[in-house]
Amino acid sequence: LEEDVALKILRGSEEMEMNVRPVKLESRQGDERELTAWGMSVRDVTLPLSIERRLDDDLGVMVTTVQSGFPAENAEINPGDIIRRIDGKPVEDLEALGVKYDELVAAGTEQVLLDVQRGRGLRSTLLKIKK
Predict the structure, then answer these.
(1) Lower CB count within 10 Å: N or C terminus of the chain?
(2) pTM
(3) What is the pLDDT of residues 37-49, one digit of tens each?
């Protein structure tokens, strides 16, 4: 998908040549993962979703559900919020978030700082994980 493809196009009687670069067609919904210890589920921010929500880019993950009484709800995270950073480090996609989440859960981390975008605003919030 990284290489240009040469195309010949016939428009009326005029022949045109152009190079195009194919891109992966993504659905609006990306892959989803449940973050049980934090009490929420998240989904990849896809290009179609970022266009629909008028985001600056397709980086981060979108919160899809928040469980009552869990750290995400206590930190006032809502479905639709976009997680941009964890402990000051950028979250590019669901895979990157999953790796960081697994590390933090394995280490028994009790507090996690998230930078969350809601609408056009960005705020920091602290997840307090109960043992």
Answers:
(1) C
(2) 0.75
(3) 999 999 999 888 8
